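queue> holo job accepted (2-acetamido-2-deoxy-beta-D-glucopyranose)
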Amino acid sequence: MKRATMVQPSSTFVNIKKNLWVSLAIAVLSLCFVPINVSAAVRRHPPQQHHLSRKPSPKLRFGRNGEFKILQVADMHYADGKTTPCEDVLPSQVDGCSDLNTTAFIHRMIEAEKPNFIIFTGDNIYGFDSKDSAKSMDAAFAPAIAARIPWAAVLGNHDQEGTLSREGVMKHIVGLNHTLSQFNPSELHVIDGFGNYNLEVGGVEGSGFVNKSILNLYFLDSGDYSTVPAIPGYGWIKPSQQLWFQRTSAKLLRAYMSPPNAQKSSAPGLVYFHIPLPEVASFDSTNFTGVRQEDIGSASVNSGFFTTLVEAGDVKAVFTGHDHVNDFCGQLTGIQLCYGGGFGYHAYGKAGWPRRARVVVASLEKTEEGGWGTVKSIKTWKRLDDKHLTAIDGEVLWSKKHTGKVE
Ligand SMILES: *[C@@H]1O[C@H](CO)[C@@H](O)[C@H](O)[C@H]1NC(C)=O
Ligand SMILES: *[C@@H]1O[C@H](CO)[C@@H](O)[C@H](O)[C@H]1NC(C)=O
Ligand SMILES: *[C@@H]1O[C@H](CO)[C@@H](O)[C@H](O)[C@H]1NC(C)=O
Ligand SMILES: *[C@@H]1O[C@H](CO)[C@@H](O)[C@H](O)[C@H]1NC(C)=O
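queue> job finished
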């Protein structure tokens, strides 16, 4: 969320990065509680052993229908549940409307789409109005946990405004059931933010790509507010995070191009974080799908992450939240920049303009032998929280054909 609630960084924030070792130790400990109950698209796996240099096997994988479906939930702004009212709904909708409507919407989306994975792109809770950040998070993520669907979350700019710091919020998240969220890369001692990590999505069980990551998911902490006095406004993705991204992308490329089944170019990547990149402002209605109803709430400086993404070459789409009443996707230099669209009822919105969620499906091609191969296309649509969960704005974000087969 950005409207009217911009605050200066609190003095406590600058101290958060102290005790990084303690945080890492706790993060590693928390990883012992990885989900045991796994859905059809997730393979059973032992607790992660980060100190062994063995290649970790992918925990997420494409289903036997050759698809992997992701539900994006942006800006829930969850607070105290039933006692927390809805914002910006029609006068006739005010009575009986609360955070529980956000919960009901997630349940409906899960029922309708049966996603393989759920990604919460920040401002998951609205710290200012929450009495207890841990309880707010438990309630906010409860539908994903109850459905036993693996999920991941990144931080927005409001998650830390309650009883927990950003570090504390991310620590709590990684300890929850069925989450694949990680605190930060275990091999790095210094990185800005909390909740920078990547996940690999393996090929179909029984196919030639069972041991390969054929879709790569990256998650980053886009910060909250600038801590640099001379720079006003929101946070940005820092050089330390971009370096981690570059190295991770290069490592994944090497693995993908190695036998067995060595590929000639990178597997497609999707990136999720909260605050949109400044480049999102370069679109207008002639070159995006969806609507723009407010200014782009990016940082006031450009830290170059878009260029870093273009250089790496694997990322096909970036998904953010933050601006609740923008819900478009536009393509720039071969990368789709997409908003999820505001999801939560205690978040600002536009009365009469339904809350919404974005769905992304990656589909595999068949190999010459008739088995499942690598990713052929990535499609998206949104669903509105209306009577019929109306699906809108379906489009192909990326397709192997259009970019041409790499020789
Ligand atoms: C909120 O949930 C209540 C209870 O299910 C329902 O009656 C009401 O229509 C919902 N409000 C909105 C705006 O969806
Ligand atoms: C996590 O799930 C397991 C098995 O479903 C359950 O026994 C445990 O209490 C859950 N833990 C939390 C923190 O909810
Ligand atoms: C995948 O890895 C397993 C375990 O190492 C191995 O037995 C199997 O042959 C591999 N399959 C393929 C298609 O590479
Ligand atoms: C979108 O179209 C406008 C003209 O209507 C143009 O100025 C802008 O550069 C285009 N943006 C992109 C990203 O193609």
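queue> The chain has seven helices and 14 strands.
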